[in-house]
Amino acid sequence: MCTGSTWSVSVGRGVVIEHQGGIVIHGASVIGDRCIIRQGCTMGLRRLDDVTAAPVLEPGVQLGAGAAVLGRITIGAGSRIGANAVVLDDVPAGVVVFGVPARPVTSIPVQA
After folding, report:
1. Which tens digits make up the pLDDT trace of 56-81?
2. Rounded mean pLDDT of 78-91?
3. Mean pLDDT in residue range 82-110
4. Contact at 8 Å (CB) between 26 and 45?
5. Rounded Cα–Cα distance for residues 48 and 1 (Å)
6. Could you say which of 17, 26, 51, 61 would form a disulfide bridge with 57 (CB–CB 3.0 to 4.6 Å)?
7. Across 1-112, where does the E strand assignment appear?
8. Are 88 and 71 spatial neighbours (Cβ–Cβ below 8 Å)?
9. Beta-carbon neighbour count of residue 16 at 10 Å?
10. How far apart, in whole angstroms, are the C-alpha atoms of residue 3 and residue 51?
11. The pLDDT value given to residue 92
């Protein structure tokens, strides 16, 4: 149980929230500069035994519609998460993942 906590998502500069509907972001999440989050995305917990175990998006990450990024994981800079993917593990920088659970399909050059 969590009582008396103040939650504030850390949001970087130039973040784009597309089609704002149905987006859920846990208060301990971190969203880096220039990220794009599309409709229906969830950034949240995997378990309730650590309510601070929220995801981190490094700069330039793109979340496809309906993607779920769950737990204390880091999505590397410039990565892309496919629509409806369920991401449960860290994603290296510049990698494209999709599926349930999400798996890498290719890598892309990371732009600074």
Report:
1. 999 999 999 999 999 999 999 999 99
2. 97
3. 91
4. yes
5. 8
6. 61
7. 10-11, 16-17, 24-25, 30-31, 36-37, 42-44, 56-57, 62-63, 68-70, 74-75, 80-81, 86-87, 95-98, 103-107
8. yes
9. 10
10. 11
11. 96
| pLDDT for res 19 | 84
Order of all β-strands in the sheet with 80-81: 16-17, 36-37, 62-63, 80-81, 95-98, 103-107
- Rounded Cα distance, 22 and 52, in Å: 22
What is the distance between the alpha carbons of residues 40 and 59, in angstroms, rounded to a whole number? 20
Nearest-angstrom CA–CA distance, 94 and 43: 19
Share of the chain above pLDDT 70, in %: 89
* Beta strands, E only, 58-94: 62-63, 68-70, 74-75, 80-81, 86-87
Q: What is the DSSP letter of 14?
A: T
Confidence (pTM):
0.88
Count, residues in the chain: 112
Amino acid symbol at 5: S
